[in-house]
Amino acid sequence: MILKAQNIKMEFERKRKDTNILEVLNEFNLEVPEGKLLLIMGESGKGKTTILNIISGLLNPTEGNVFLDETDIYSLNDKELSKLRSENFGMVPQGQTLLRSLNVLDNILLPIKLYRNPSDDDIKRAKDLIDEMGITDLIDVMPSEMSGGELRRAAIARALINNPKILFADEPTSDLDSKNRNMIIDIFKAQRDKGVSVVMVTHDDSLKDIADILINLNEEA
Ligand SMILES: Nc1ncnc2c1ncn2[C@@H]1O[C@H](COP(=O)(O)OP(=O)(O)OP(=O)(O)O)[C@@H](O)[C@H]1O
Ligand SMILES: [Mg+2]
Fold first, then answer.
1. What is the pTM of this model?
2. How many angstroms separate the CA atoms of 47 and 65, rounded?
3. Of 38, 155, 200, 205, whose CB count within 10 A is highest?
4. What are the phi and psi torsion angles at 13 (to 5°)?
């Protein structure tokens, strides 16, 4: 599946003395081809999270369109868009986003539980992902008892539970030591090699070598 963002403008209303409008993106275009790792680099405040939210169906831009193949995703109603998102997209959000009241297995099954009771197959898939992420021993552990790298790997498993065609990740290596950082990068590369399109945003210059396609927001005006 091909994801395209066309002529995106994003303005936020923000109370300031001189102006009430903050323009974060203007004439922004992006194409995410199948099975590639696309890296969007930019300093803090350049709009990386905003871009991920727009192209993953969470934030309707002020102007412009986002197409998944032929579908203009913001022309869908809420229910249709949620269905498209859960069938095609996985998201690893910025920061720690596991629910503190659920253990690792239940956190990973959460995207399924929003729609139905997990089947035996769903639970098996969750356990396989837990193994793949190298956190087998943590299956029934609560997030408060886990390290930053472990939390990040559990969040990736949660993003993968519905077999997404496109995996979005917002600063997935921030606050990690180099060992954990490499582990996370290897996980994303392995997904890419399985044919999943990966869209990652980061302010970390040292990640640029892992990209199949690099978009540098710092170079734009
Ligand atoms: N809902 C909002 N309302 C008003 N301003 C916003 C909103 N969301 C983001 N912004 C502003 O838009 C700009 C871009 O924000 P964004 O979160 O996309 O940056 P970022 O590149 O992800 O930064 P970081 O690296 O710190 O995560 C910032 O100046 C931010 O303050
Ligand atoms: Mg951000």
1. 0.95
2. 17
3. 200
4. -80, 125
Quickly state the pLDDT bin for 206 (edges 50, 70, 90). Answer: confident
Instruction: Return the higher-pLDDT residue of 220 and 10.
Output: 10
115-173 pLDDT per residue, tens = 899 999 999 999 999 999 999 999 999 999 999 999 999 999 999 999 999 999 999 99
How far does residue 199's CA lie from ligand 1's centre (Å)? 18
14 Cα nearest atom in ligand 1: 4
Task: Indicate the SS3 state at residue 165.
Answer: coil
- CB within 8 A of 219, min separation 6: which ones? none
What is the pairing mode between strands 63-68 and 197-202? unpaired
Distance 107 CA to ligand 1 centre (A): 27
What are the domain boundaries of the chain? 3-219
Q: What is the CATH number of domain 3-219?
A: 3.40.50.300
Q: Convert the pLDDT of each residue in 81-112 to its tens digit.
A: 999 999 999 999 999 999 999 999 999 999 99
Atom of ligand 1 nearest to the CA of 44: 25
Instruction: Provide the 8-state DSSP code for 206.
Output: G
Name all residues whose Cβ lies below 6 A of ligand 1: 12, 14, 22, 24, 42, 44-50, 94, 203
β-bridge pairing 71-72 and 63-68 = antiparallel
